TrEMBL record:
Protein name (record): TGFA1 protein
Residue span, CNH domain: 23-296
Transmembrane segments: none
Keyword Cytoplasm assigned: yes
Origin species: Sylvia borin (Garden warbler)
One record GO biological process: autophagy
GO cellular component annotations of the record: cytoplasm; membrane
Main location: cytoplasm
Taxonomic superkingdom: Eukaryota
Matches recorded under InterPro entries: CNH_dom, Vam6/VPS39/TRAP1
Lineage: Eukaryota, Metazoa, Chordata, Craniata, Vertebrata
Subcellular location as annotated: Cytoplasm
Keyword check for Protein transport: yes
Keywords: Cytoplasm, Protein transport, Transport
Amino acid sequence: MSVKAFKLVSAVEREMLMGDKNYINIECIECCGKNLYIGTNDCFIYHFLLDEKVSTAGKINFAATKQLQKYLGLKKPVSELKAASALTRLLVLCDNTITLVNMINLEPVPTGARIKGAVTFTLNENPVSGDPFCVEVCIISVKRRTIQMFMVFEDRVQIVKEVFTPEQPCAVAVDGYYLCLALTTQYIILNYNTGVSQDLFPYCSDEKRPIVKRIGRQEFLLAGPGGLGMFATVDGISQRAPVHWSENVIGAALCFPYVVALDDEFITVHSMLDQQQKQTLPFKEGRILQDFEGKVIVATNKGVYILVPLPLEKQIQDLLASHRVEEALVLAKGARRNIPKEKFQVMYKRILQQAGFIQFAQLQFLEAKELFR
């Protein structure tokens, strides 16, 4: 049974980005606060400011204002963008080179600092250095079976570690000293400080695109065999049951308490609390799905959309209105971490009371008594 957890809202329409130039495609996106950056196949970076507007009826819309566009001077696509807001820097991967540019004017840093030989890269969101004016970057190197760790400062980069892997890595996520890697035939956890590695489960990267995503401290979400979204900790164990995706998932994001997945035709929403599929949104030609500081963004080749979550209280009330008491209580308990303690206690008491009346009306007196109690 479905729950309306998200609404799909357009953020950047095709005309704003490319006008009538049909050959332009979106390759990557990055969002930091109100700043939205888009990298394209013709080597441009576009910077938009996103303004959230709430109508009198409570509907949320986004207005994007174009700030700047910058040509990087190559005939190659911009493959990846990552913002390091503490440094006011944008890390740009193009033609196997990561360049540092200013987040505001998109100009390269004067020192020309760059990281060469990167296939793909990610930032360590749980850094180990303790330096607030540095970001830790992990790259899959063009060198065979090699991962490199860098410290990136405002105007310089410094290599910290080079690690060799048993097979060629094709995707990576980082938490502290732990790397979660998709290799050619399996997923592993590797501690780059000690060199100790732990096998997770087999996976064939030739058949499907692997997904490796850090979803919290020492925990990752992976695209497993048989269309399963699997959770794994750095100890190589799973503390949550898997979610059932379609076989051809191309992206996943987390917006607690939901895991959102994108395939060729749909965006699907699963609850992390009971693993059930809660919502399906038709979405053709999707190619990117990412979450940024709780904002879930999805993109096609030509446009960018935002998945706006409906307030959890509204979702709980909708479940109660459909007499889905168990699901409403599970969601209410899960909402505890998103709502201030005092507000949560008042809300939860009211929900227990409503649930009690629903059970009472269905002549389930023992269950009603427990809820009233």
